Amino acid sequence: MANEKSHTDKFEELCAGYVLHSLNEDERNEFEQMLEEATDEERQLYESLASAANQLAFTVEKAEPSDEIKKRLMAEIKSHDDDQENEISGSIHKDQTSPEDKNKGEDSFNWQAFAIAASFALLIVSLSLVFYSFNLRSQVSHQKTQIVRLKNELQQKRQMLSILGSRDVDMVIMAGMEVNPNGYGKVIWDPKKQQALLQVSNLPPVPKGKDYQLWLIKNNKPVSAGVFATDNEGDNFFKIEKMAQASKKTANAFAVTLEPKGGVPQPTGDMYLMGSMKNNSSE
Amino acid sequence: MIIFLLLATIGKAIHGDSDDEIKLMRRIKQRDADALEELYDLYKRLLFGMVVSIVKKREESEDVLQEIFVKIWNKADSFNEERGNVYSWIVTLARNKAIDRIRSKGYKTQQKQSVSIHEPLFTLETDKHDPMETTIFSDRAELVKKALGEIPAEQSEVIKIAYYRGMTQSEIAEYLDIPLGTVKTRTRQGMIKLKRILGEFITTDG
Question: Is residue A153 part of a domain?
Fold first, then answer.
């Protein structure tokens, strides 16, 4: 018994070293093992020794850490919590801090600036919508006139084609005359309906105050068959609605002259095109 | 006898003060950073002094101090107010951190030759910092110094070296050039006496 320590002695000895953190690792593990199996009395001893050891801290010479540490600490804690908020859900701290954070966010939100920014944005949006609608409206009206123009054009072409489709049509080819040798033209003529289709090419655009005038040469006398004007782009097909009354036999030729605007009863100007009736000449 | 009664009264008053610390801990558990800041202001000088006495190097001690409070923040939930007081929990946590640091492999080789032994100073704190800190801690310091004074010097010596410098019993034996068994015996006897004397001052301290 003198050499061998009792369990209580051993416990006390390890316990005293343990509370001072002065045991080596093996002894520490040994004591922790003993503590797990300790009696209430032993446990009480451990707690009072630990408390006594902790009291020693009061006698330590106090020292002032630099102010920087506090800043570093608070910053680290903030970053820790930010991390945890991302990772953990449903923890106490989240439940308690998130509404607070929310309030903070609302407080710091500048509603006035937001309202101003929003009204500017709204104004810009409205202006662009107005501009857009104007644009659309002008586009629509432009397209409407285009549609009207195309409808008219189509109507005209249909009528022209209807002339081509008639049973008895004659075609007179007109050649360019001296003033404009490159010009040429055709008259497709339906004597019964008194309608004709005129096509001209390579005629110079009409000067201001002038018109081209088509003449039907009937019994060797010119009879006006209508006026027309060409332009550079030249829709150079014309329908003649009311052709002068004439039959294949009485008509000799067609001619185009340049006359004062609106036409004249008798030709006065230069002749640009002329073509004779084939059947007449053959007959 | 009169002085003992007086000290006991102060001790009880001090113990009552830890209610404030419990409130701080509750706020910390609820992630109140301001509460941690208050706790830091209350404990920084005590803990930093303790860490410096063990770790020695100021810069490294500051790192440890920071780690201690980060751990307090993160482990606040493990503090059980039924089982112990705030002070004991924090001091134990802080000492563990400081001792972990000096017993880590890198630190040992780096510090071995530079360990200089000096007697810890038992001066009463005269600076007026946090009034709460100054009152509580310096009153307690008086109690503990008184208790240590009543223990045989050879026993209090090993206790002081162990506590203030974080040395292991083997290191103390080597340093004092006495057998390890003697260090163990003196530690045991000294601590039992210290416990008894402090227990007379403060009866219910956890």
Answer: no
Q: What is the rounded end-to-end Cα distance, in angstroms, of chain A?
A: 165
Whether residue A52 and residue B191 make contact (CB cut-off 8 A), yes or no, is yes
Residues of chain A in contact with residue B73, where contact means CB-CB under 8 angstroms, are 77, 80
Residue A270 shares a structural domain with residue A177:
yes
The domain tally of chain A equals 3
Same domain, A31 and A78: no
Q: B144: distance to nearest CA of chain A, Å? A: 6
CB atoms within 10 A of CB A36: 8
Does some domain include residue A238?
yes
Nearest by CB to residue B191, choosing from A16, A65, A66, is A16
ipTM: 0.77
How many Cβ contacts (< 8 angstroms) between chains A and B? 170
- Give the mutation candidate from B15, B91, B97, B105 for the A interface (greatest A CB count, under 10 A): B91
CB contact under 8 A, A22 and B52: no
Q: Please list, in sequence order, all residues whose beta carbon lies within 8 angstroms of the beta carbon of residue A11, skipping any fewer than 6 positions away.
A: A31, A34, A38, A42, A45
B123 HSE (CA, 13 A, CB side): 9
Could A57 and B46 be called an inter-chain contact, meaning their C-beta atoms sit closer than 8 Å? yes
pLDDT band at A250 (very low <50, low <70, confident <90, very high): confident
How large is the greatest C-alpha to C-alpha distance in chain A, in angstroms? 167
Amino acid at B92: T
Q: What CATH number should be reported for the domain holding residue A265? A: 2.60.40.200
* Other C-beta atoms lying within 10 Å of the C-beta of residue B196: 14
Work out the pLDDT band at A235, boundaries 50, 70, 90. low
Domain span holding position A80: 67-145
Q: What is the pLDDT of residues A106-149, one digit of tens each?
A: 455 778 888 999 999 999 999 999 999 999 999 999 999 999 99
Residues of A within 8 A of B126 (CB-CB) are none
The alpha carbon torsion through A30, A35, B86, A64 (nearest 10 deg) reads -20
The predicted-structure confidence for A169-220, as pLDDT tens digits, reads as follows: 888 899 988 888 888 888 888 888 788 888 888 888 888 888 889 998 888 8
Asked if residue A155 belongs to a domain, the reply is no
pLDDT, position A106: 47
Residues A44, A71, single domain; the answer is: no
